[in-house]
Amino acid sequence: GAGVSQSPSNKVTEKGKDVELRCDPISGHTALYWYRQSLGQGLEFLIYFQGNSAPDKSGLPSDRFSAERTGGSVSTLTIQRTQQEDSAVYLCASSPRMGAVNEQFFGPGTRLTVL
Amino acid sequence: ELKVEQNPLFLSMQEGKNYTIYCNYSTTSDRLYWYRQDPGKSLESLFVLLSNGAVKQEGRLMASLDTKARLSTLHITAAVHDLSATYFCAVDGGQGAQKLVFGQGTRLTINP
């Protein structure tokens, strides 16, 4: 079946520009997560959506970062006024959240390069 | 703050040998996850360990969980080149948090 998809796969932007990253979760998965993977910081949690509940934004590194999830499915992560330190691979994951099990299925990622 | 530490971070081994990757975490948790990442690729779920004493095996890989020791191991038996990848362990964020907290990853290179 179809897995988690993300677009674009690569994004190169200039410092100060805004970028939008998109995630399509696995159909039927109620939970959606964004993580960031960079050489110096490993895998960092950014934000979590579960159904209609308020998102857990505790991992967003600054107010330049925001995310939304429309209709309980597709999510977009927006980074405003990008900085060079935002360069990383942004990974989206979804989970069916069966009981307490939190197995997450990851998309291929978006590699963001800020020049 | 929950910390997850893997050991070793880099491992180079010969085909046919056995080795173990260790994952220690700093808070109580009954659930631990192992992922594999190939270069330039995303994370692939390998094992979900849900209770103390859980053991799961897939091919040459076997994972176990000791929640009392806050330790999980990933054992590689008779390694083959195809197992070269980076392996991550992850633990639920705890205190109702839904995120996964990942270890630093172990980069495994298996030489012919």
List keywords for this structure.
heterodimer; A: about 120 residues; 6-stranded mixed beta sheet; globular; B: about 110 residues; mainly beta; 5-stranded antiparallel beta sheet
Gist of the model:
The complex is a heterodimer of chains A (115) and B (112). With 115 residues, chain A is mainly β. Helix content of chain A is 0%, strand content 48%.
Topology (SSEs and partners):
The complex is a heterodimer of chains A (115) and B (112).
Chain A: E1 5-7, E2 10-13, E3 19-24, E4 31-38, E5 42-50, E6 65-69, E7 75-79, E8 88-95, E9 105-106, E10 110-114
Parallel strand pairs in A: 2-10
Antiparallel strand pairs in A: 1-3, 3-7, 4-5, 4-8, 6-7, 8-9, 8-10
Chain B: E1 4-7, E2 10-14, E3 19-25, E4 32-37, E5 43-49, E6 55-58, E7 61-66, E8 71-76, E9 85-94, E10 97-102, E11 106-111
Parallel strand pairs in B: 2-11
Antiparallel strand pairs in B: 1-3, 3-8, 4-5, 4-9, 6-7, 7-8, 9-10, 9-11
Textual characterization of the structure:
The complex is a heterodimer of chains A (115) and B (112). In chain A, 0% of the residues lie in helices and 48% in strands. The model of chain A has no long low-confidence stretch (mean pLDDT 92). In chain A, strands 2, 4, 5, 8, 9 and 10 form a 6-stranded mixed sheet that branches. In chain A, strands 1-3-7-6 form a 4-stranded antiparallel sheet, with no helix packed on it. Chain A is an all-beta fold. By secondary structure, chain B is mainly beta. In chain B, the strands form 2 sheets. In chain B, strands 2, 4, 5, 9, 10 and 11 form a 6-stranded mixed sheet that branches. Chain B has a 5-stranded antiparallel sheet with strand order 1-3-8-7-6, with no helix packed on it. The mean pLDDT of chain B is 92. Chain A binds chain B through residues 31, 33, 42-43, 45, 48, 50, 56, 58-59, 91, 93, 100-109, and chain B through 31, 33, 35, 41-45, 48, 50, 88, 90, 92-93, 97-105.
